[in-house]
Amino acid sequence: MLKGFKDFLMRGNVIDLAVAVVMGTAFTAIVTSVTKGVIEPLLATLGGNKEFGLGFQLLADKPSTFVALGPIISAGINFVCVAAVLYFVLILPMNTLKSRFAKAEEEKTATELELLTEIRDLLAKQNVSR
């Protein structure tokens, strides 16, 4: 029963789903706060328009036509940070565990040639003892 549970947990789909839903949602809030509090003000200082920050205006007399590039850059930074943390904290260790379990199972299973050799040796011992 525990082996079946272990096999269920080690399946790639279950782990990927857990990573994407639980950790992605929780960590996104932290990264978003950092980018809104630190990155966006820094990007706003780079912008030519002091009122709106980094971006450009399509029509000079209409402020509603301002295209803000700062939030787009911040969203890209959010994505990269969340993806990096999820990879290095969850995916990489899980892949390491999978490879260790796979090596242990490979060592346990004998090859066909080894089994045939063992059968031959056992049969040879039985024929000698008769």
Q: Number of DSSP helices?
A: 4
CATH architecture: Orthogonal Bundle
At the first level of CATH, the class is: Mainly Alpha
End-to-end Cα distance, whole Å, is 44 Å
Oligomer: single chain
> In what order do the strands lie side by side in the largest sheet?
1-2
Helix-residue proportion: over 70%
Rg for CA atoms = 29 Å
CATH homolog superfamily: Large-conductance mechanosensitive channel, MscL, domain 1
Strand runs, count: 2
Structure description:
It is a single chain. A hairpin with an 8-residue loop joins strand 1 (55-57) and strand 2. The longest helix has 39 residues, at 70-108. The protein is mainly alpha-helical. It has a single domain, classed as Non-ribosomal Peptide Synthetase Peptidyl Carrier Protein, Chain A (Orthogonal Bundle), CATH 1.10.1200.120. It has a two-stranded antiparallel sheet. The mean pLDDT is 77. The chain is built from four helices and two strands; from the N terminus they run H-H-E-E-H-H. It has helices at residues 2-10, 12-46, 70-108, 112-129, and strands at residues 55-57, 66-68. Helix 2 (12-46) runs antiparallel to helix 3. InterPro entries: Mechanosensitive_channel_CS, MS_channel, MSC/AndL, MscL_channel. Belongs to the MscL family. It is found in: Cell membrane.
